[in-house]
């Protein structure tokens, strides 16, 4: 599912600013500075919403207002397929080394996973929270594309994944997945750092991380 977050932000702010400017140029007689300032209220409100989406929600003072965890960054992953998974004899029965690259704002998230044989991209997601839980968990659908040399035994497929952060700024997570190839398994994830510019498994594996400083780094 495509989520054009950036164009939507630009549109909301742009329309709000144009609305305020048009009111100023329309010749309406606003006899007090307060009334004149109110014409820019939609633009200010739109700016606050965009600031919340991009930044404010993850700052310590504002993070208390939401149950959404911060997951963006590079994650080192191990996949553990179950014995019931229909993996060809010559396939990888695990544990499977992988990396997760997550880009996130308050209202949007994109997850890309690399293994030594394939790349997966999230297509749709939703957040859910059990009663009494401290934070939300993330569930998403993904599309997996194996490298050409592996597609004879490992065709392209769809899957579902659930990540359980357990805290708002986790350094470790647990996860579960299953696919339409009748494979399923568990995941363990460890945060490397907040970087996201990794184009391949080899790039992520060779990356030398900088120290993770905290929830608002």
What report would you give on this structure?
- The chain is of the alpha+beta class.
- The chain folds into 2 domains: 5-54, no CATH class; 73-206, Lipocalin, CATH 2.40.128.
- The chain is built from 5 helices and 8 strands, in the order ααααββββββββα.
- It has helices at 5-25, 33-38, 41-54, 60-63, 201-206, and strands at 73-81, 96-104, 109-115, 118-128, 137-146, 157-164, 172-179, 184-193.
- It has an 8-stranded antiparallel β-barrel with strand order 1-2-3-4-5-6-7-8.
- It is elongated, with a radius of gyration of 22 Å.
- The model has no long low-confidence stretch (mean pLDDT 84).
Question: TL;DR?
Answer:
The protein has 2 domains: 50 residues, no CATH class; 134 residues, Lipocalin (Beta Barrel), CATH 2.40.128.
Give the SSE layout.
Layout: H1 5-25, H2 33-38, H3 41-54, H4 60-63, E1 73-81, E2 96-104, E3 109-115, E4 118-128, E5 137-146, E6 157-164, E7 172-179, E8 184-193, H5 201-206
Antiparallel strand pairs: 1-2, 1-8, 2-3, 3-4, 4-5, 5-6, 6-7, 7-8
């Amino acid at each position: 599912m495509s989520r054009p977050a950036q164009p939507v932000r630009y549109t909301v702010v742009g329309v709000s600013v144009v609305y305020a400017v048009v009111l100023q140029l329309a010749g309406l007689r606003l006899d007090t500075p307060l009334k004149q300032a109110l014409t820019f209220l939609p633009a200010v409100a739109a700016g606050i919403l965009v600031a919340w989406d991009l930044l404010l929600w993850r700052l310590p003072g504002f993070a208390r207002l939401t149950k959404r965890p911060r997951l963006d960054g590079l994650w080192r992953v191990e996949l553990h397929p179950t014995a019931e998974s229909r993996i060809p004899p010559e396939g990888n029965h695990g544990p499977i080394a992988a990396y997760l690259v997550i880009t996130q704002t308050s209202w949007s998230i994109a997850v890309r996973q690399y293994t030594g044989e394939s790349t997966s991209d999230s297509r749709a997601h939703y957040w859910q929270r059990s009663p009494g839980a401290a934070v939300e968990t993330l569930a998403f659908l993904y599309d997996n594309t194996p490298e050409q040399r592996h597609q004879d035994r490992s065709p392209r497929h769809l899957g579902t994944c659930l990540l359980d952060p357990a805290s708002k700024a986790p350094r470790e997570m647990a996860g579960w997945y299953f696919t339409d190839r009748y494979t399923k398994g568990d995941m363990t994830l460890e945060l490397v750092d907040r970087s996201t510019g990794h184009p391949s498994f080899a790039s992520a594996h060779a990356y030398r991380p900088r120290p993770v400083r905290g929830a608002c780094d």
